[in-house]
Fold this protein.
Amino acid sequence: MKTLKIKGMSCQHCVKSVKKTLEEIDGITEVAVDLAKGEATFRETSPVDGELIRERIQKAGYELG
């Protein structure tokens, strides 16, 4: 499992948005987002470019920490 720090989440809507954003990336499964920790965890089923993840998270309105 990989873990990312995500800045800017403040409510359950944010959690759902980040989860949906990550789930839409090919190769990412088992997404879990923890609002209290400001983290998202997921499993990669195939290698995923970190820059692609960063772009998608930023487009959703959040930042990687």
Helices lie at 12-23, 50-59. The mean pLDDT is 97.
